[in-house]
Design goal:
By secondary structure, the protein is of the alpha+beta class. The protein has 14 helices and six strands.
Length: about 425
């Protein structure tokens, strides 16, 4: 025991004798290890992604399609993220996807529901083995998250395909048939705009100065004035590029409408026959015992099959009437075509009015798309949020880990010094 104590004192004496050198060695070791840890920490990045819209808790995207967070490692997203980072010549999406890990953060609830759907996810990135130039893992991760946000908003928010459609400016169309196509296009835009107006009528884009209210006024002006004026001119003047062909088309259309009308009137008659077959006393009222909010019984009238047939008869009659109105309107057009012979200047005027409408609808759709994109950015800015972990300098150099490693080095050096001093002392005795 005395010999061990003597050796330990000898070790301490050795380090004390060379204390300046020892401190310099430990300081250099500490700096070197800190640098290694700092460098390695730049090769990893972490982010938390949160989805903050009502459908997220149901496992759905804002447009009601099925949600899948794995799209963040799809080729389209990663390719865009690599391009944003300027690494398209160094990394491929397939290489990068192998270095990304995703996991849900909130995997359960207090009630223990196994079907709980996570709305927050953790994304981790390690770039060991990837050529990064002078980019850090945190930089690349931010670019990937930015690319994912663009992809999510473009593919899973509102569908703007209706506004992206553009009408071809026609030169040789049949005016009457082209007007029907324009009316259908107006109904598409009007339906989309109505939905937006119900959400936020007062929204306006500061950059373009457009607002839903202004675009709605332009649309209503087309509906109330431009389309009726062009339609009236074409019908009243009997304008047609090929009168015989148009007449055959309209006559065939009326035959189809007449078949549909006859079918609905047959439904109407059948429902009325069914109603008349009911016993008068039975159909007057059918009462059943029912509980009210105070848990008291009372007799309540219930609906019978006769009620369902009455509603069905009303619907059939209404639809049959619509078909009859369409037939009458088409017959009027056929009559006007027969009464008038289209002059070249009339055809030119009609097509000029149609071209004006085509341009007006295309301009309206273009402005609506610009405004709608701004509105989607406005309302969806918090749909997807990212929280990036930014470690401090102490965390990046791994202060505790570095201190432990230096301590282990000191212990190792002391053990080595203990063994060396013991061997030298033994050699002196042997002499």
């Amino acid at each position: 025991m005395d010999r061990i104590k003597s050796r330990i004192k000898g070790v301490f004496g050795f380090f004390w004798r060379y204390k300046l050198r020892s401190v310099c060695v430990l300081l250099a070791l500490f700096i070197a290890l800190s640098g290694v840890h700092y460098y390695k920490s730049g090769k990893a990045g972490n982010a938390t992604v949160s989805f903050n819209y009502s459908e997220a808790s149901q496992g759905l995207n804002p447009n009601k399609t099925r949600f899948s967070f794995s799209e963040i490692i799809s080729d389209e997203v990663l390719e865009r993220g690599i391009w944003l980072a300027g690494l398209e010549d160094c990394i491929t999406p397939a290489q990068l996807s192998a270095h990304i890990g995703i996991s849900p953060v909130d995997t359960g609830n207090a009630g223990g529901d196994d079907e709980y759907i996570s709305t927050t996810y953790r994304v981790s990135l390690s770039v060991d083995g990837l050529e990064m130039k002078n980019r850090t893992a945190a930089d690349l991760l931010k670019n990937i998250c930015g690319a994912y946000r663009e992809y999510f908003l473009e593919n899973h928010c509102d569908n703007q395909e209706i506004l992206r459609l553009r009408l071809e400016e026609t030169t040789g169309s049949e005016p009457f048939l082209r007007m029907n196509e324009l009316k259908q296009r107006v109904r598409q835009i009007e339906k989309y705009m109505s939905a937006r107006m119900s959400e936020n009528r007062t929204f306006s884009d500061d950059d373009s100065g457009l607002s839903f209210d202004e675009l709605d006024k332009r649309l209503q002006n087309i509906i109330d004035y431009d389309i009726p004026n062009a339609t009236a001119y074409i019908i009243e003047c009997g304008v047609a590029s090929n009168e015989a062909e148009l007449t055959r088309i309209l006559e065939y259309k009326n035959k189809i409408e007449a078949v549909s009308e006859d079918k609905q009137r047959a439904y109407y008659t059948a429902d009325n026959d069914g109603i008349s077959a009911y016993e008068e006393l039975m159909s007057a009222a059918v009462m059943i015992p029912t509980l009210d909010t105070q848990e008291q019984y009372y007799m309540s009238r219930t609906k019978t099959a006769m009620d369902a047939m009455a509603r069905s008869a009303d619907a059939a009659l209404s639809e049959a009437t619509e078909h009859r109105d369409e037939i009458v309107g088409t017959e009027y057009v056929i009559e006007k075509l027969a009464q008038n012979e289209t002059a070249p200047e009339q055809l030119t005027t009609a097509r000029s009015m149609i071209n004006k409408l085509e341009r007006a609808l295309n301009d309206l759709a273009e402005d609506a798309l610009m405004l709608d994109s701004a509105y989607i950015d406005y309302k969806s800015q918090d749909y997807v949020t990212f929280n990036y972990s930014s470690p401090s300098l102490i965390q990046r150099i791994g202060l505790k880990k570095t201190a432990v490693e230096v301590a282990v080095f000191c212990v190792g050096a002391a053990i080595v010094a203990y063994a060396v001093l013991g061997r030298k002392k033994k050699e002196r005795k042997d002499r």
